[in-house]
Structure formats: C-alpha cells, structure tokens
Design brief:
single chain; mainly alpha
Length: 83
C-alpha cells in the first residue's frame, strides 16, 4: 500500500506555506498524483491531488518511515483529543 499525503500534510512536514508547495508542483520539484478519473468533456481537471510520501521525504531530508511515523503519531493524538 502506498502512503499518499495531502497538500496540508506536505505543508506540515516541510514547514513551508501552501504557495511553496504549489510552486514545487508547478516547477516539477514535487510530482502530484491525481486520484480518480477525469470527467469526459470537462474543461477543468478538478481531481483530488496527493503526493507520494517518498518524494516528500526526499525533499524534506528524512526517510519515508520517519515521515510516516510522524503522521501516525499525529493522527493518534488527534483521536485522543476528539474524545
């Protein structure tokens, strides 16, 4: 199973702004993965975008396992706070 990150998760992992992540996708530094199928005849491509954890980890300078454990720890903490 591949682990994919959202824009917000990339922002948190890299400690940068959303504009920086968008710039990275535009200039090819970070390659997005589009989810789902494109609607036929649609003018805009509004599919959800995610990023491979390996690409983000290489950009940040950590291993994918370290980054994955960070988000597992974060999601566990958020579950505790919700209770």
């Amino acid at each position: 199973m591949k682990f994919l990150l959202t824009y917000r998760e990339v922002v948190e992992a890299a400690n940068v702004s959303i504009e920086t992540v968008k710039r990275w996708t535009h200039d090819g530094t970070l390659t997005p993965v589009k989810l789902g199928k494109r609607k036929r005849g649609a003018i805009r491509d509004n599919r959800a975008v995610r990023f491979k954890i390996g690409d983000v980890a290489a950009l940040v300078g950590v291993t994918p396992q370290e980054l994955r454990s960070t988000f597992k720890q974060y999601s566990t903490t958020s579950k505790v706070v919700e209770k």
